[in-house]
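Regression report. Comparing outputs from two consecutive submissions.

Submission 1:
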Amino acid sequence: MALLALASPRGYQSVVTGHALLQGQIAWYKRSHYSTQRRQLASQATAEKSFSRSDSRATSHSGQSYPSTRSSQSSSTSGAFTPTSSVQSLPPDWEDELPTLNDFSELPHKDFGKNQLLETNEEFKRSLRGILRQFPHISYAFAYGSGVFPQSAATASSVTQSPHPNAPEAILKWQKGGGKMIDFILATRFTEHFHSLNLNRHKDHYSFLGNLGSGIVSHVNDRYGAGAYFNPYVTVNGTLIKYGVVDFNVLQRDLTDWDTLYFAGRLQKPVKILFEEPNIRVANQRNLLSAVRCSLLLLPNQFTEKQLYMTIAGLSYLGDPRMSYGSENPKKIENIVNHQIRNFRLLYHDLLQSLPNVQYQDQQCISKTDWMDDTSLNTRFTQDMDPNRRANIVRRLPKAFRQKLYFLYQRKFAIPGREFQDMLEESRDEDAKGGLKKPVASAFDLRIAGESDLAEMVGRAVQQTVKWPSTVESCKGLISAGPQRAWRYWREKREKSKGKA
């Protein structure tokens, strides 16, 4: 009877009317999503027009245009970024605004965040972008690790045979004939959609998990650990790579709040940004500045440049199980800084100049035009240890990380739960309207800053932030990469830690 009713003209009309109403409701519900997509496309078009001609041809395999990174550095193969003044790089109160930008023209300053755009030579950069064009649409991407920036003098010579089956000449030249697997992080706004398209193109990149479909893959991607999904030891454009997929919002939140330091920690070290997005540039600038502030709380009144950069580079390794179980070179942090000191200077010099509580001891040394190229230089810093200054540093630490530090001192001071919750509410970053409040140190921040064990407590907070997500990601590799590739990855890490590779 129900079928006969539907077959009648009146029943058919009701179905059509209901369907049209449902479509209208769906369109209304998704209006903000479509509007956001239009703004993103407009942002990409604006970014491409403002970038140099050599960088404006970055087009995806599907025909979508990616925003390319325009470097303000010279065209030399080593890169020659000239830091702008701190006034230009960091406009007043830029941290006090939520980054909700539609395009690069809305950045706090036209040169804002260009310290992040570390240069390689053009051919190498194009080869890396050529690899990424083989994937579905990516909102933000960077390459990192020893395959991009050497971490020891033996990086190229230690590998007698390139692991790449048929890599472009530019990659072989950059890696000096030896070679390392190249690591990427790819940020996408919809991980399930990305994996669905990527499974159609590159099913062989996935372990047995890929047979279960993009829904299961994205569930493992988003719900466990730090929110990454890695496919190691895959070949694209004749090049051996490892790539991790992360949700765009997860990446942005880690950069601003330090939920896990899994992605923020990688971007605190020299990386090659390949596809950009304006909100991530702002978020990463906050991340870099937070890394400096956190490291200042771990360092004494006077310290050297290398001590500072080793502290920054070591943040994401505190609590990392790979450092505890011998699957990482114990000198890894020292190697990174010693062989990338120039890039660390490019990343952090302007930020250090913008902070009122730290300064170079030898201002004449850094006034020389070529001081950043002097790798033998190890200049010294002095920081103001006044509790009021340090209380402001504590208050400006990333939200999720700062709360961990607060909880450590709650236990130490035996603060009752209700009183502590009131203190947390008072220290919220957001105001009643959802905007950001100007961060002002509270009495609790001042009390923390005066404690003699502050450096120890900050270190414990870093370990708490890093340990669990990193441990889960390491275990997750057994199913995302598959047992065979996971074992290969662990074995090679062990060999490198013992100095065999």
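Submission 2:
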Amino acid sequence: MGLRTSWPTISASSRTSAPAVSHTSAIALMNEIFVARKEAETPDANVGLDFPQDPADAVGVATSFWSSVNRRDFLTTGASGFAVSAFTIPVTRWLVTPADESAHHSGGHRVGRADLDELREAADDARRWDSKYGGGNWKAGSVTACLQERAAPLLQGSFSDRVGRELFSVTGELSRLAGWTAFDVGEHHTAQRHFIQALRLARAGGDVQLGCYVLTTMAMQSLLRGFAGEAVDMAQGAFARAKGQAVPRVLAFTKLIEARAHAREGNAKAASGALAASESLLEQARDNSGDEPTWIDFYHHARLSADAAEIFRDLKNPKAALAWNQQAAAMPSGAFTRSVGMRLAIVGTAHLQARDLDHGLALGHRSVDILTRVQSSRALDYVREFNVALTPWRRDPTVRDFIQRTRKELGMAA
């Protein structure tokens, strides 16, 4: 609602005797009205960062954030940037209490199975489109609209404890997906808020597995923003809290992200230990287990091997990186466009570390071929890292041509 201004009324008899309002006073009055209206319309800079203890307050915070997040003023000036310290209270509160006691609610519309199925289908669609086209595609971007227009009214409805737990869980996964797509296109302040709300919704649904996964995703954002030490803490906390409650595949992914964070810190021993733990947990997982959540079905040994190549690239160990890459099964670029493009850049960088320019450049060109089809600032970071690894050969004509190609086709800065 905008600010409704009440103007004073002036009787006909007093119009001639009333003192005239100066031009300067009129301008001042209009400025006050403009400022008041602007303040009423500008979203709270901290919206979405709260992690309320009370479930009803949590729903209010989440829905308020969803109603603000797509507004232009939020995306440009309404929110502060990413701050790893903003994760402190949400992470602490989840680690202390990862599941609320009850999820029932009495309100409006009676939430049923069809409502839950619709939200799950929206989440499945978003995951597929994100993998294929990146977080900037229109389908992935529609997740926030689904949260505001479909999930928010359902959270205000009536539901039993059982239905409520499912509703909170699937809405939490949608919020995590919204965060992931924002993260992928470089909107880190927005992504951080989505992740915090996803973690709170997972707690409201009593879904410790989802909470573990969301916290692991938060750790991944932190490490890729340059906070590897905090990422290690978050991943280890997620694993310790969910152990005994989460299936092996979920725990294995948490150990993988811990390994990646250790590698960013240059700790080869800790990275190798966490990677080995992830591989051991994957061996315990049953591929077709009915009790595994669908959102973790992407994590198999092929994904572990691909990430292991990145881990050893970060550790400047190209021999190990290329050995792990040999174990990673080929992924169809039509279904995993972004992942294939990033992997080619990672392996190409490892070849450059091994002083193999020809092979590295060939993979670099293939990476660019694929990444021109996706909208992902995160994927472009891998090409930037590849370009940095080309530094020893900067005067080589083939290298100069490649750098020029990335500027022209991917919009890379000089």
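Expected: both submissions complete independently.
Actual: both completed, but the second showed a warning that disappeared on reload.
Relevant detail on submission 2: The CA atoms of residues 81 and 189 lie 5 Å apart.
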